Records
---
Amino acid sequence: MLAAVVNEFGGPEQVELTEVAVPRPAEGQVLIRVRAAGINPVDGAIRAGVFGGAGQRLGLGWDVAGEIVEAGADVTGWSRGDRVVGLHYGPVKPLGTHAEYVVLDASAVAAAPATVDAVAAAALPLSGLTAARAVDLLGLAPGSSVLVTGAAGVVGGLAVQLAARAGLVVTALAGAQDEELVRSLGAAAFVPRGEAPAEPVDGVLDTAVLGDPALAFVRDGGVYVGLIPGAAPAPERGIRVAEQEVAADGEHLARLVSLVDAGALTLRVADTFPLADAPKAHAHLATPGTRGRIVLTA
């Protein structure tokens, strides 16, 4: 099968297409025929060597939408042909979802949304689970105020929708050109990038990874939630600082799928590329102002 991998760190030109054997599912795993796979910023970081792994082949891709081809021993509830989505967690792995087939733990898989195609579904797993975990970590009661930085991005946009659905009063911080977009996702108020909210908020969900400047928006005793482990600012003024770390969780993913099918969660795709054009897709990943997930199709 064809797979996109990195053998040397660097720019998009380091993404290689190579022929490898189709993997086989072990006990508790399923083999998925990949139909679509999102490209996330973490893939660019892996390619650049942020997570290490020098001297070995690194597979790319965390998101997958496709159908089950084979189930390993002790797997129940899944049959050949079932349409699924899943998260292939881990920055250092020999093969990822940017391939024609991928093996995942059955516990990482959920039935695919019935209301969107595989391309849109591939934009859900990593971004959706990240946003949902971050909103949960806020721990705020309905009616509380929360500011989402980077609200027009993929994770930020999903966080706006999930926070609003949880009854939080959402202020979106994004570029001035994105006000209409973020309000359509459920933001009650808008702050242009580079400005501060009129009043401190109960919590900040910092998808833009602003750090200290975002912490300054939180009231004394409030909460700050960051997306990248180890990158959050130091607590001050009694503010609780938390960092989400995503995990492969099929049950949680299934709940997000149900929101998609109910029309309560909008998935956004900016562009698609065939798997063979993975290096071009990686170059496009760095394009400023991209509003939606870039997706590879296999």
---
Amino acid sequence: MKEKIIKKASEMFLKLGFKSITMDDIAGEMCISKKTIYKYFCNKELLIEESTNTIHTEVHQIIDQIISKNHNAIEENFEIRKMFKEMFKSSDASPVYQLKKHYPEIYEKVISREINECNTVFKKNIEDGIKQGLYRENINTENYTKFYYNLIFSIKGSTSSEKEAQQLELEILEYHTRAMATQQGIIELEKHLLNPDI
């Protein structure tokens, strides 16, 4: 039952935001009593913390699957973006913005965990892109990795509209890629920017 509650709460938090959803909403959606939820979670904060852990694990499993498909570095970034867009497609208010505004301590834990994971993923992407001739060889990989995740998390935490955040993220991805790209990389980037589904 605990896992079912976390799964349902995670779906609802992503769809409607961490602040908007109450314990009553979750109980109603699951056709169980609120008392059942409190049996496993003494407060909403604990449920949010468990839910963000679950979401984090699922996101990084999907990212690992995308990486295992051996796309080129630019295509890989667009595939990861597509996954996030799909995950947050039904949200109006940005769940990350709500988390930062209303549950800052949980947000800080989430961000520090995300930065560790993203640091590895983004750094590997840049190294692969250099080997593939899509990114310039003289890039300071550490700095470009930091630039990218700082921009992404800054937008996520400061933009209340999910639609606006996603548009800004696309522009950050383009900005990040153009800053690193070789001529071959620019051609690959332009190809993806023409895709209406991005």
